Each structure stands twice: as C-alpha cells, then as structure tokens.
TrEMBL record:
Protein name per Swiss-Prot or TrEMBL: FkbM family methyltransferase
Record InterPro entries: FkbM_Methyltransferase, FkbM_mtfrase, SAM-dependent_MTases_sf
Residues annotated as domain Methyltransferase FkbM: 18-185
Xref: Gene3D superfamilies: Vaccinia Virus protein VP39
Protein source organism: Caenimonas sedimenti
Pfam families found in the cross-reference section: Methyltransf_21
Keywords: Methyltransferase, Transferase
Length: 282
C-alpha cells in the first residue's frame, strides 16, 4: 500500500506514545517505524524488559521503565498471565461466569509501585498518537495527561464494557473524558467476547455469542474543528488515518481542511486521484 506521506514534500516524523502495550508484538504503527517515519516513546516498568526493548528499538526511540498512572503509590496486581496484570484487582466473581477469563486473571502477587503522570515524563513532548492498554486504568492515565491529550491528534485505547476489574471505569467514562478533551470517536478495532458458562461456541473457549466485553477504541481530534490544528498536525493525522487505520474518507476530509488554508498544494484532489487510480498491471 502506498503511503500518504508521499503527498508531502517534508519528511514527517510521527511521535507515538505506547503505554502498557506488549511492545515485543507487532503494533499497527510498526510500518511507520520501519519506514523511519515514527519515533516511539514506550513504557515497560520491568527494568530488564525495558533494557531489552531499548536495545531492540534503539535511537531515536525510547522505552521508559515506569508505571504510568496518577503519580501516586498504588498497588499493582500481578496475575498468572502477565498481560492481565493491573492497578485494579481482577473482578473474578464476574469473570468466572465466562469461558476462559478468570483462569487468565488470577492474582499471584501484589506490589506497591510508584506511578508517574504521563505529563511528567521527561522528554515526552510534541506527541501525535497515544496507544494505551493498561487493563482498566486508561481513564486514570488520561486524567493525569491533559498536556499530552492537547498535543496528540489520535488516541487508540482499550475500553471495557463490563467491569473485568473491580471499580474500573468503563467505556462510557473514558468516552466522556476524551470528548471533553476535544476528541471524537472514530471506530472500534474488533470486540472481545466470551460465552457464558457452561456454553461454548463451536467448542472454542475464546469465542463468544453476543456478549461483548472489551475493544480498542480509536479517537481523533474533533473533525468539526480541524481549523484549531497546525498544518503539521493535520498532515500527521492524515498519515495515521491512511497508513495505520485505512480510513480514506476521514483522511480526505483532513486533507480538504489543509487545502482550505491556501498555498495551492491540492492535497485532497491528489489523494483522491491516487485512491481511484487503476491498479498497475502485473
């Protein structure tokens, strides 16, 4: 797939903040990193793993060995499956009603940890995209990152629709906060589901019928007020929408906002022409 970066004369460097992700996996923004078009600021609180990730990514990327939260000391609930550990205790009375859920969220240890506000992380400036997956603590991170939210143009966040963790904020809480911060919901990236016990869909314990439990929600800066964003931010938003999320309609809308500022660049028509050009013959 061709990149929307080809529309622009300057070399764009998208600053991606990834909080709580399994950075050893293949994130959706990886093609931008591979192309030298993105700089990653990641977070891995285990010092040994953080050191490995810094060696893997190298400059200009940086992985920080901190727990992101509200800046206070909190209890981290370590579980039998590392990716389900959280600053919130698993709600296994609820989780045990579903196939293969509580079994993946058994607390094996509790640790007192010092958390850091995202806004207080050294060198975390001019952020463009935030990707966050911290098992129920997403709202806490956003509440203590007003500066980062004001700089970014796109947020990808895990959200839950039922409380998999005790007293955790749910999708409606996260949605209200991000809308108040100037974002609009753009899309969901699939839905996590499980079947209520004792049923199992097609004998697959990780499949569900109708009950949805979680998803990744993608938010963009309010597309009714794109005039509030600088040219560079609009260009980076266009690149993220096209290259990472395959959202050509909203990308075109963003490029139209750029064209209205004058300069004769005609980004939107050139983008549309590229989109509708016949595929090259093999």
């Amino acid at each position: 797939m061709w990149s929307a970066r080809a529309l622009f004369q300057e070399a764009l460097m998208v600053h991606v903040v990834d909080v709580g992700a399994a950075l050893a996996e293949h994130p959706n923004y990886q093609p931008l990193i591979d192309a030298g078009a993105a700089r990653l600021s990641g977070f891995e609180p285990t010092p040994e793993e953080c050191e490995k990730l810094n060696a893997k990514y190298g400059a200009p990327h940086r992985i920080h060995p901190v727990f992101v939260g509200n800046g206070q000391t909190q209890t981290y609930h370590e579980t039998n499956v590392g990716l389900t550990g959280s600053l919130f205790e698993p709600h296994n009375e609820l989780n045990s009603k579903f196939q293969q859920l509580a079994e993946l969220m058994q607390v094996v240890a509790r640790h007192e940890v010092q958390t850091t506000r995202l806004d207080d992380v050294e060198g975390l400036v001019d952020v463009d995209m935030v990707k966050i997956d911290v098992q129920g603590a997403e709202l806490q991170v956003f509440q203590h990152a007003p500066r980062v939210l004001s700089e970014a143009v796109l947020i990808q966040t895990e959200v839950e629709f039922v409380p998999l963790y005790k007293d955790q904020p749910l999708f409606a809480d996260v949605d209200a906060h991000l809308r108040a911060a100037g974002y609009q919901l753009h899309t969901f990236l699939g839905f996590g589901s499980r079947a209520f016990k004792p049923l199992a869909k097609n004998n697959q314990p990780y499949d569900g019928f109708r009950q949805i439990l979680w998803s990744d929600a993608v938010y963009v800066r309010d597309f009714m007020h794109l005039d509030r964003l600088a040219d560079g931010k609009l260009k980076k938003l266009a690149v993220l929408l096209h290259d990472v999320y395959q959202s050509p309609d909203l990308c075109h809308h963003v490029l139209e906002a750029l064209d209205r500022r004058g300069g004769g660049q005609r980004y939107a028509p050139r983008y549309l022409q590229q989109l509708t050009a016949p595929a090259p013959r093999p």
